[in-house]
Design goal:
mainly alpha, Growth Hormone, Chain: A, 595 residues, single chain, 3 domains, 26 helices
Amino acid sequence: MYTFLSNSLQKQVSVMSMNLSAKLDELQRGDRHLETTVALCEIRSQLQELTKSVESCQSEVSEVKRDMVAIKHELDTVQQVKEEIEELREYVDRLEEHTHRRKLRLLEQGLTFFLTYSIFSAVLGMLQFGYNTGVINAPEKNIENFMKDVYKDRYGEDISEEFIQQLYSVAVSIFAIGGMLGGFSGGWMANRFGRKGGLLLNNVLGISGACLMGFTKVSHSYEMLFLGRFIIGVNCGLNTSLVPMYISEIAPLNLRGGLGTVNQLAVTVGLLLSQVLGIEQILGTNEGWPILLGLAICPAILQLILLPVCPESPRYLLITKQWEEEARKALRRLRASSSVEEDIEEMRAEERAQQAESHISTMELICSPTLRPPLIIGIVMQLSQQFSGINAVFYYSTSLFVSSGLSDESAKFATIGIGAIMVVMTLVSIPLMDRTGRRTLHLYGLGGMFIFSIFITISFLIKASKPIITEFFGYVQEMIDWMSYLSVVSTLGFVVFFAVGPGSIPWMITAELFSQGPRPSAMAIAVLVNWMANFVVGIGFPSMKTALENYTFLPFSVFLAIFWIFTYKKVPETKNKTFEEILALFRHNNGRYIL
């Protein structure tokens, strides 16, 4: 630019010089005064033009200088930004390395005595849920006889079989209605009183409900049984929300899956306990059934004794209440170590990641585009547990075993054996949960249940067609008798795969999918759906059995196939992931998980 302006100025000066020389030559040759005056005027005019040209060039040179200074400043700014980007990249690399080291240290944490004690104290609530789910089945005839006697004493006439069935159905189903109310209230209870505080207060309901059921016969009132079942249902609904939340928040990262499975282990132990105590040789009698129902007071009292020693959830203390020192004290007790900085940092990272979602309401949770996908996953996982057909298997198990050649008494003990198998397989799934992963185990569980549900349907069809086949093909009688054992194997296989996947995973994964802010509301919605599905199955299964007969399990097979496809396509793996990483997974892959 400088060269261009210099050349332009030189050309203009040369032209002016040539013009001046020409005019001077004319003056030297000319004699007249007028011509001299005109020539001088022209020279003066050209000198003025030359001056203007010089000034114009100087102005352009100044502008170019300013442009060059601006360009230099911009280049300096670009270089500075480049250096800042490099520093930022180095900082991000250091942060990722620090996060990775922190996660490795978190993965090295082990099971301590006090952590074990706290988890045992908490899961007594899930044992309460399992016990009260199964306890009403064994003394069915005894309870119906009691209702008949009460009705006759009140009204002086016998009650119809249809009405007595309706009364017993109320005693069974009102438990699920209470569970819906309790489950939906769990989020409010967890935020208002804390996880531990909510569990302690909930035992008041447990003791009240157990006392009402235990004194039903003494009071000669089946309404007291209904009220007791409703109150214990509210208690169990709150337990199914609070206990998984508490355990997921106190468990170390590398043990969260296995310790989450302890929820289902407690449920299966409660179911087995109710089956064993409900046999006629123990409490399954006209005199013993009130004691059988009243024993629900034991888990509540035991938890009231043990739980006060346990710490509140550190995540609740730090993130919800902002009590850092209390959270540190709780972590030191749970980890049996004074070095808890990794846990504190991980909680702080979760807090930063969910700052916009703190104290989120149920409607905000449902309307949030980021939180809706994990909420849908949590709901479908709960449905996969209840609509899998496991309740139908327990309903059919005794008749299946009788049809395979066992006596009535042996078939009842075989049903207890199914409960024992569930306990054993849940124990087996605990170490697998953090090795194989939640998603993988759930797929295995749903797939195995689908296959064995088809086999159960085949065994029903064989049983139904047995007289016809025997009449026309008597020589295949032996083979048909052998095939009847297919029902036993199919039932056992169905239960085994339920314990591996759908039995335990829905309880833990809902708590894992959400950060501290929306977790209580999400758990409340998911648990409400679980109890509603439980109620629907309990009410609808007898009608479905009458309508479909030998094809009763086909709807469950269809549901299992749908749930398997959904899990394969939509459910992420949460194994060894922090709550912050799981939250980021849905934010970064928002489109993938929206249905």
